[in-house]
Design brief:
Blueprint: E1 6-7, E2 13-14, E3 16-20, H1 49-63, E4 67-71, H2 81-89, E5 96-101, H3 106-116, E6 120-124, H4 130-137, H5 142-154, E7 161-164, H6 175-185, E8 188-192, H7 211-219, E9 224-226, E10 237-241, E11 250-253, E12 266-269, E13 274-276, E14 285-286, H8 287-292, H9 297-309, H10 329-332
Parallel strand pairs: 3-4, 3-12, 4-5, 5-6, 6-7, 7-8, 8-11
Antiparallel strand pairs: 1-2, 9-10, 10-11, 12-13, 13-14
Helix pairs in contact: 1-2, 1-9, 2-3, 3-5
Bound molecules: S-adenosylmethionine and iron/sulfur cluster.
The site of iron/sulfur cluster has 12 residues, from loops.
């Protein structure tokens, strides 16, 4: 079967599927969720494991998707995660399989997930201070994240990537210390500019820590050398660090100040079965309704392709008419 492809009207082709497995989380990162949590999606609205596996199969077999990243909310709290990974790993052509997680519980789950077929992991960690971590996430779980990172390496998930978001006045003095920590442990660090995706709508362009500031802080302590490799659709611009041989050690995902929408190759599926062509879309396409209405694989693939054809050219954060999406990052899937 020749796959349809997820092409949009600007000629971009989506081959990278982000699947949100839950909107729930065991942390409350200030830039993502309010301290009191959110009104979680009711269980009947969530896709079942079988429904997720079917959509992932359609994406790979019929729509040319080659990479699957499981995310959330916190994907490690979904009981069926191991089986979802195993079912995706059995597909032909086998997609590459990765996970974005806050790392809590990864000390127990890293090896079973590798055994199921997981290839790579990104672990989010924004601070080296347990006390700051507790303030930033409203949970005292810093030590668990460190254990999770170490277990990921031990289980063979290397190179482990670490994601960090810097917030002004909270951890914006940690760019260089986080890089030193990552270099010392062999993690590849990715700073992510804070985006207007917090449930509390507190983001402001004036207060966000920019890629330029992050790079200036790093360059005060390290010599960064541009990565000679083609960037392709990768969201992070990456650098080698002088004195640390091997692959690029640090990257910045400058979604706000250096948008990479023209090269975006993502398609997203929310935990309740909605396709989003962009993190910042105002529109969603309801695949869950099709699934539960006994639609054929072809009908679902066609609906998915149509949804992606309408992908906007860019997120438009700089446009005066920009509207933050109704769903926060945790409910879309980061
Ligand atoms: C939404 S989380 C989901 C996966 C998992 N719970 C985690 O934290 O890694 C995915 C990534 O999005 C990042 N993120 C969440 N809200 C963000 C925001 N408003 N701006 C930039 N990155 C954000 C997190 O730091 C994390 O690295
Ligand atoms: S960023 Fe991840 S860990 Fe933090 S609250 Fe959002 S979903 Fe949870």
């Amino acid at each position: 079967m020749t796959p349809l492809r997820l092409t949009d009207r600007y000629g971009r082709v989506a081959t990278d599927l982000r699947v949100s497995l839950t909107d729930r989380c065991n942390l409350r990162c200030a830039y993502c969720m309010p301290a009191e949590g959110l009104a979680w999606l009711p269980k009947p609205q969530l896709l079942t494991d079988d429904e997720i596996s079917r959509l992932v199969r359609i994406a790979v077999e019929r729509l040319g998707v080659t990479e699957i990243r499981f995310t959330g909310g916190e994907p490690l709290i979904r009981p069926g995660l191991r089986d979802l990974v195993a079912s995706a790993a059995a597909l032909q052509p086998r997609p590459s399989l990765s996970l974005t997680t806050n790392g809590i519980g990864l000390d127990r789950l890293a090896q079973p997930l590798v055994d199921a077929g997981l290839d790579r992991v990104n672990v989010s960690l924004d601070t080296l201070s347990a006390e700051r971590f507790a303030r930033l996430t409203h949970r005292d779980r810093h030590a668990d994240v460190l254990l999770g990172l170490a277990a990921a390496v031990e289980a063979g998930l290397g190179p482990v990537k670490m994601n960090s978001v810097l917030l002004r006045g909270i951890n914006d003095d940690e760019a260089a210390p986080l890089l030193r920590f990552a270099l010392d442990h062999g993690y590849q660090l990715r700073f992510i500019e804070q985006m207007p995706l917090d449930a509390g709508h507190t983001w402001s362009r004036e207060r966000m820590v920019t890629a330029e500031e992050i790079l200036a802080a790093l360059e005060a302590e390290f010599t960064l050398l541009p990565d000679p490799a083609e960037r392709g659709g990768a969201p992070a611009q990456t650098w080698l660090v002088a004195g640390y041989p091997g692959p690029p050690r640090v990257g910045v995902i400058a979604s706000v100040t250096r948008p990479f929408c023209a090269a975006c190759d993502r398609t997203r599926l929310t935990a309740d079965g909605q396709v989003r062509s962009c993190l910042f879309s105002q529109d969603e396409t309801d695949l869950r309704a099709l699934l539960r209405d006994n639609a054929t694989d072809t009908q679902i693939a066609d609906a998915w392709a149509l949804a992606m054809f309408g992908k906007p050219a860019g997120h438009g954060i700089d446009d005066p008419a920009f509207l933050q999406p109704a769903r926060p990052m945790s409910a879309i899937g980061g």
